[in-house]
Amino acid sequence: MSSGRPRRAVWLRLHTLLVFLFLYAPIAILVAFSFNQTSQTAVWRGFTLEWYRKLLSNDVLLGTVRNSLIVGAAATVLSTVLGTLAALALGRHRFRGEGATRSLLYLPIIIPEVVVGAALVTFFGVAGFRLSLLTVVIAHVVFSISYVAIVVRARLSGFDRSLEEAALDLGARPVQTFFRVTLPLILPGVVAGALLVFTISIDDYVITSFVAGVGATTLPLQIYSMLKVGVTPEVNAVSTLLLAATVVLILLAQRLQQPPPERPEG
Amino acid sequence: MSRGDERSRAAYPLILPTWVVLGVFFLLPLGVLLVISFGQRGTYGGLRPIGDLGAYLLSGKFLSQYARSLHPIYLQIFWRSLWMAVVTTGVCLLVSYPVAYYIALIAAARRRNLLLGLVVIPFWTSFLIRTYAWMFILRTEGLANRLLMAAGLTSHPLELLYNDFSVLIGLVYGELPFMILPLYASLEKLDRTLLEASADLGASARETFRRVTVPLTAPGIAAGIVLVFVPSLGQFIVSDLLGGAKTILAGNLVQNQFAVARNKPFGSAIAFEVTAAVLLLLLGYAVWTRRRGEDVLL
Hints:
The complex is a heterodimer of chains A (266) and B (298).
Chain A: H1 6-32, H2 50-56, H3 59-92, H4 98-110, H5 113-127, H6 133-156, H7 161-169, H8 174-203, H9 206-211, H10 219-229, H11 233-257
Helix pairs in contact in A: 2-11, 3-6, 3-8, 3-10, 4-6, 6-8, 7-8, 8-11
Chain B: H1 11-36, H2 53-58, H3 64-68, H4 72-106, H5 109-124, H6 127-138, H7 143-150, H8 164-188, H9 192-200, H10 205-216, H11 218-233, H12 237-242, H13 250-259, H14 264-291
Helix pairs in contact in B: 4-8, 4-11, 5-8, 6-8, 8-11, 9-10, 11-14, 13-14
């Protein structure tokens, strides 16, 4: 440890503390005021769960939660299967178009969301798709495959191939080997990818706003239109719930992605 | 790595579904958008049919949307988007480097994962809600104004929202984790003995930082710049919520042409200009990284 420069370390520590304060204070304030008794000002008037009670009786809002869950679940299942297969292809095989595939997988993440949204809604119009929950699911799958492929690919790179070879030598068929050996080994990566994608899906606003048809309003779209009208404690309450859900999902995904405990260095 | 060097056919069933999905629902839509950017808006917001394609192409009219985007009104919006992205990236870099340095090199090893986790959580939580948090704080009846008034700095609430400053706060707040993480990744790999060697050879702390630490962490700096600059350039939510009608960026312009103005050809042309800017930057980054003989961090 560099204990020779304690003064510099103190400044760096203070700076880091301030940055963490900057990152977390706004969220903390948002959450705190979801329990505030008044809807008018930023004055604390006492604790209440009234805004949460109001949410639970807001049928429109609950409907959008349902839509978000349906889209999230469908997009997660589809993109997890596709992304995992793509990661296996990239991690295990050499094939024609490998480099192009790699670039192709980065593009949906890199190209600005407004552009992807505009392209999809135009395409759906030209191809005669009616905007609905289905078009939202398709859009989410498009940007989710990449995340799953990247996470699973990372997991594959530390993979002991000899286990599969052993299974094949012992007479297991390739399909058996995949389900009994390969899949269990990469499963943490697959589940982590799925959790991340589910989180991104239930959070997405920009692309969804382009491709959601009438009756396909998701929770972020509903939140957006609520806060365009005016800031209310209800928005804080629903935001708090969404934040809590994503934090739980992220912590789970983190857990699963963590490599086995490192050996202490010599 | 134990993957075969020969091309194997077994890859195709695995990769084909992804090719089909991304081909049909990603590349094809981008192609459609590109074609439309060469068209003209019809009377009712649709596309005007083109009678004679050859004559249309020869007249150069197919470039008219791009020509229109060069009008000073739009150039000003592009300029502001670019400027906002540059400032956001600069501020993020200055703020993040010390944080990443602290987590990677100074904090106790057992604390490192916790600190890193604290950076990762906002990285993944809803951008929309994190932007809303600032709307909640900066609005006229918000906490910031109450604090300012309580401190006697102002007698009446200030208009803190809907200006370039509030948009910048939102952008920096939103993109900060994207800068800290790549910086941390490259600082963590830094060989500490080099820092000690530099100090032993008589370099001051400042000199060591400038001539050893910064050059060795250049890949992380470059990756961070790309990761922050690219989303800032195409930003939509922050400028819409915190900038109101006053601070329009390129992303809002695209959205507006599709949702409000119903001028798809013009919206498509701007979309491609933004995309081209992003891709050029990434190309530059890839070339730079390859020339240094390093792995692309992204």
